[in-house]
Amino acid sequence: MTRALILDTETTGLDPATGDRVLEVAAIEVVNLMPTGRSFHRLINPERDVPPEATKVHSFTAAMLADKPLFAEILPELLDFLGDDPVIAHNAPFDFNFLDHEFDRCGTPRIDRSRMVDTLVMAKKRFPGLPNSLDALCRRFGIDLSARTTHNALLDVQLLGQVYLELMGGKQPGLELATSIGARSGLIATSGPTIRTPRPIVPSAEDLERHAAFVAKLKEPVWATIEEG
Question: Which positions are annotated as active-site residues?
Answer without folding.
Answer: 151
